Amino acid sequence: MTNPVRGNSRYSDYYRAQGLSAGRSAAIPRTLDGAAAPGRDALTAAAQGDHKAATSVGDIVVPMSLDTAEPDVLAPRPPGPTGHPVLDVVVPVFDEERDLEPSVRRLYAHLRAWFPYAFRITIADNASTDATPRIATALAAEITEVEAVRLEQKGRGRALRTVWGASDAQVLAYCDVDLSTDLAALLPLVAPLLSGHSDLAIGTRLGRGSRVVRGAKREIISRCYNLLLRGTLAAGFSDAQCGFKAIRADVAARLLPLVEDTGWFFDTELLVLAERAGLRIHEVPVDWVDDPDSRVDIVATAKADLRGIWRVGPALAAGRLPVSDPRASPRRARLPAPGPPPGVPRPLTFGVRGRDGAARHQFQGLVVFGIGLGLTTGALALLDVLVPGAGRITELVALVVANALATALRFVLFRTWVFRSPRPAVASPEAAPVDRAPENHA
Fold first, then answer.
1. What b/e sequence results for 388-400 when a residue is b if at least 16 CB atoms lie within 10 Å of its CB, and e otherwise?
2. Are residues 37 and 172 in the same domain?
3. One domain for residues 395 and 257
4. Are residues 34 and 47 in the same domain?
5. With contact defined as beta carbons under 8 Å apart, do 116 and 147 qualify?
6. d(CA 148, CA 124)
7. Active centre residues (catalytic)
8. 49 and 98: one domain?
9. Is the pLDDT of residue 92 over 50?
10. Tell me, what's the pLDDT at 380?
11. Is the confidence at residue 267, as pLDDT, over 70?
12. Are 150 and 254 members of one domain?
């Protein structure tokens, strides 16, 4: 089996030290002294520790440690324009008494060192039965930027909907409590949302540049699930279930009421709805190390995901979901809608966005292509009848004229038959002053 490490020299060095090759198969791994190497679980656990140590507070701020964070002596951060935190990072937990405190302290230290604006860390406890609520309350009492929320029902989607729906931050994010994703990707995750470039951002373990350490079973399951999403829901994003995502608060206010799932399918449903609404989803390749102590039930999660696909797919196909562009929210100025490239006049475009009617458009486009092909082929056949033995120059002139006519015909058919739907209202000149009015009075 091929080693699961991809592109990370630090992990490659670690495996070479154990007598393994980072790019070759090894049936019986051996250490340098010839003894049998540790199993996959031991190697994954060691890599997980190395991954966490790489972004520990000792690498960022000296001499602060994980156990002695003192928020009162640190300089305050500038809040957002409304006076509220700019970023709210939610950490959903269920019976995580062992990992909660060190993970929250490491996340807090990283944000203090690298995030330039006011932030909040919200611990969302999903009906834990161990000491997790007590630890969360203690952290909230000790660190000003940490809050604890207790929910009496389980479900990651329920936790995110509750906390995000009540948050006053401009950007809402979440990460898994095991911090399997390297925190160095957090600022690249939220930066496109703060600048207004994108509406949602996700970490991806399957994109180019991602560095992932995990077993073959989880790798295969993850790739098969995302392949299934592309085939059934026409998803364009690469990784639906990576526990590292962010969304603009104004967009979340419009999308969250449309999301029905309260468990693991919450992420997928949110992303599918956002994509169908024409929102821009930014993807960040991440360094990710599997947690060998993960409590995720793969079988139960897979069943819930399949039920979610079965529910959302037919609803989208039948148009039963009220998906509209959340950028039309009156809470903020409308973001520029994607349009033709600079320099292309709008009368020469077709004003089509999204996937509505995609199957019909594809079929009609194929018919138009056939008409154009028939026109050019027929021109050569007609030339052969009218001018037998015509030279190459004559054939070339006939092809140029036929292609020009075919191009004009294709354009007319696209405008009048294939894309005959009316243009969106936002493209009309009368609607422009309405969109600019709030900006002039701000």
1. eeeeeeeeeebee
2. no
3. no
4. yes
5. no
6. 6
7. 267
8. no
9. yes
10. 82
11. yes
12. yes
